[in-house]
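Lecture 7 notes: from sequence to structure.
We start with the chain below.
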Amino acid sequence: MTEYRIYFIDRNDHIRGAVDLAAPDDLQALRQAKSHPDPRIKEVWCGARLIGRLKEPSPAAAGSAALDL
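Predicted structure tokens for the same chain:
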């Protein structure tokens, strides 16, 4: 398992929290981040490497976050 961190980003691009997670690969880390209930923008990092950014869901697409890779 590889260690990752999800950063929760506000609308001004400031970090407002973070959680650690373990996943076997980058894709699984992104899936775990997408399923996290926090609605804010999420960035997934592995050390100094950005894995991806998950945008906040829009009201029209409630419940789904788009990958911004």
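Points to note: The chain has a mean pLDDT of 87. The beta strands are 2-9, 15-23, 41-46, 49-54, 67-68.
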